[in-house]
From TrEMBL:
Species annotation: Actinokineospora soli
SUPFAM superfamilies membership: alpha/beta-Hydrolases, Peptidase/esterase 'gauge' domain
One Pfam assignment: Peptidase_S9
InterPro entries given in the database record: AB_hydrolase_fold (IPR029058), Pept_S9A_N (IPR023302), Peptidase_S9_cat (IPR001375), Peptidase_S9A (IPR002470), Prolyl_oligopep/macrocyclase (IPR051167)
Record-given protein name: Prolyl oligopeptidase family protein
Length: 668
């Protein structure tokens, strides 16, 4: 099937009335089947209780003397942007100072505003650039907000709806990349041109400081506000995994940071960190993919190559990220998909373990205060361990400041890690959460973009699935970042089938171990994981009893032409290139599905307001299956963006649809 003979192109009209009429018909059919029983209502209520729980952890972000938090609950479905002090945060009932009520703002302005974040000006923290989305889309409006008056700044920095990149330079100027008109965006729909915009002037008169190429993914510009080390950086992302980065001097000159294109860099005070995706040979020394190198920033720009390897991976260990405090570097590592934290002292790079990571679970540094102190906030959890938030100081004390309650019964449940053998002999790890009784099992996966799936507490899943006798499994397949860049690269482009072979090997291993049967094994995935779900549906239907496919990519012949799709060609390839299409066509679900073949029950779920992955993927797949005589279920939330929902009530409803579908398909 080519673009020319695709009978369902009309469903790509996101808000076309005919397409929306089709959506409403499918939604009505699905809700009539799935929402008519007491169990659906119970699951929806249980999930909403989790999402709206008053005693869940309010994750803080340090901005000067205050801790900031964005909070949604039943009384504030669109949320409150608020702040408090550390002293108050430590108490059981912090006194929150509300800065912006998104529900009240939306009501006053007649808009369905969804919070998308705020950039607060350092080091004074008295101004913010607030981003708001209509219905949850990636495109936002930008408005300047005064934290002293709690009001938007009249005639301040304001931008209309677009996929904008914006950040503070100082109180009277910002870097901005947005839709300036023809030629200002890349083919992926992101900013190509970055400008310096001064207060009181029209944005049309902003000064261009950097331009990328039309075929790039995006361009960027930002200021490092670290006191005493203020610097401006600009650059471009030719594709999703590469960049060219420059120091922008006060005279407007560009000084290239000469690292491999696929490396990532970050600067803290005098230090430059370089994270490698591929091996790099420097002065006779070859540093491996996944290594983190440190050097003096100014000396490196001057040509020096005195590099310290502060992290090198091995067969079991990878680097997931790092965080700076004022005087230390904290590394977040994975060892066979289990978290480990280390603290390094710059210069000597002496290392020590940072306690707090669970034995089988995830630990993340969610915030530090690198301008002023060695403070850190550490978040940890596991499949059966609720979230714990620790506040500490490197080299000093640490205390639990928040502990989420247990929201489902874990009596009799265990977590085990196993390894399946993929088609090429690779050992693929996966976690099983179970009471040991064979039965309905849900297998979840993603496998793309270097994203790692680590053990974490999921109370909604625990209530809806585990508490009803289900087993939950997470597969750490290639394409993810669980074992570093090589684990990701092993399933790139022409090697993409390895990710799907990995996932199918886990499915078979679950049956071989007696955990479940093919008839009682369901799988779930969203976004790139939605593509995974589509591949399992069409290439491995005999392995599954049900498939939940959420905000998916499915038409891989046209994905690069739809919304942000062009930005992902480094992951899958260019369908217009015959050599790339030669391998893509073997897993493109929209092209593989056929009449006369038996498929497991499938639920497609997406959002009209998803402006990242086009809802046309799910629409067209469902329509094509219906034409072929299959009976897919389909539901499209009108709001929600790529997350599929704009508030907790919508999230609970969408979640309950999936759980009810799985229970009906695998248990009843």
């Amino acid at each position: 099937m080519t673009n020319l003979d695709d009978p369902y192109l009309w469903l790509e009209g996101v808000t076309d009335e005919d397409a929306l009429a089709w959506v409403r018909e499918r939604n009505a059919e699905t809700t009539a089947v799935l929402t008519d029983g007491a169990r659906f209502a119970a699951i929806e209520r249980e999930v909403l209780e989790v999402l709206d729980a008053d005693d869940r952890v309010p994750y803080p972000r340090r901005r000067g003397e205050f801790l900031y938090n964005f909070w949604q609950d039943a009384a504030n479905p669109r949320g409150l942007w608020r702040r408090t002090t550390l002293e108050s945060f430590r108490t059981d009932s912090p006194e929150w100072d509300v800065l912006l009520d998104v529900d009240a703002l939306g009501k006053a302005e007649g808009e369905n505003w969804v919070w998308k974040g705020a950039a607060v000006l350092r080091p004074d923290y008295h101004l913010a650039l607030v981003e708001l989305s209509r219905g949850g889309a990636d495109a936002t409006v930008v408005r300047e907000f005064d934290l002293r008056t709690r009001e938007f700044v009249a005639d301040g920095f304001t931008l209309p709806e677009a996929k904008t990149r914006v950040g503070w330079i100082d109180a009277d100027s910002v870097f901005v990349g947005t839709d300036f008109g023809e030629g200002s965006l890349t083919t992926s729909g992101y900013a190509r041109v970055m400008k310096r915009w001064r207060r009181g002037t029209p944005v049309e008169e902003a000064e261009t400081v950097f331009e990328g190429k039309p075929e790039d993914v995006s361009a960027f510009a930002f200021r490092d506000h670290t006191p005493g080390f203020e610097r401006d950086f600009v650059g471009r992302h030719p594709d999703f995994f590469t960049s060219e980065e420059f120091l922008l001097t006060p005279t407007g000159d560009l000084v290239r940071i000469e690292v491999p294109d696929d490396a990532t860099t970050s600067v803290h005070r005098e230090w430059l960190l370089i994270h490698l995706r591929t091996p790099w040979e420097v002065d006779g020394t070859t540093y491996p993919a996944g290594a983190l190198l440190a050097t003096d920033f100014d000396e490196f720009l001057a040509g020096g190559r005195d590099l310290a390897a502060v992290f090198e991976p091995d067969a079991h260990t990878s680097l997931q990220g790092w965080s700076w405090t004022k005087n230390h570097l904290i590394l977040s590592e994975l060892q066979d998909v289990k978290s480990r934290l280390e603290v390094l002292t710059p210069g000597t790079w002496e290392r020590a373990e940072l306690p707090g990571a669970p034995e089988v679970g995830s630990a993340h540094i969610i915030d530090t205060d690198p301008d002023n102190s060695d403070e850190y906030f550490l978040d940890s959890s596991g499949y059966l361990q609720p979230t714990t938030l620790v506040h500490g100081t490197v080299g000093g004390s640490a205390e639990v400041v928040k502990q989420a309650p247990a929201l489902f019964d874990t009596e009799g449940l265990t977590v085990e890690q196993h390894f399946a053998t993929s088609d090429d002999g690779t050992k693929v790890p996966y976690f099983v959460v179970s009471d040991g009784t064979p039965g309905p099992t849900l297998l979840y996966g993603y496998g793309g973009f270097e994203i790692s799936l680590t053990p974490a507490y999921n109370a909604a899943m625990g209530r809806a699935w585990l508490a009803r006798g289900g087993t939950y499994v997470v597969a750490n397949i290639r394409g993810g970042g669980e074992y570093g860049p090589d684990w990701h690269r092993a399933a790139l482009r022409e090697n993409r089938m390895r990710a799907y072979e990995d996932f199918s090997s886990v499915a078979r291993d679950l049956v071989a171990r007696g955990v479940t049967t093919a008839e009682q094994l369901g799988m779930q995935g969203g976004s790139n994981g939605g593509l995974l779900a589509g591949v399992m549906l069409t290439r491995y239907p005999e392995l599954f009893g049900a498939v939940v496919c959420q905000v998916p990519l499915l038409d891989m012949r046209r994905y690069h032409l739809l919304l942000a799709g062009a930005s992902w060609m480094a992951e899958w390839g260019d369908p217009d290139d015959p050599a790339d299409w030669d391998h893509i066509q073997h897993y493109s679900p929209y092209h593989l599905v056929q009449s006369g073949r038996t498929y497991p029950p499938v639920l497609f779920a997406t959002s009209t307001r998803d402006d990242r992955v086009h809802p046309g993927h799910a629409r067209k797949m469902a329509a094509r299956m219906r034409e072929q005589g299959h009976t897919p279920m389909y539901y499209e939330n009108i709001e929600g963006g790529h997350g599929g929902a704009a508030d907790n009530a919508q999230r609970a409803f969408m979640s309950a649809l999936a759980w009810e579908f799985l229970l009906r398909s695998l248990s009843d």
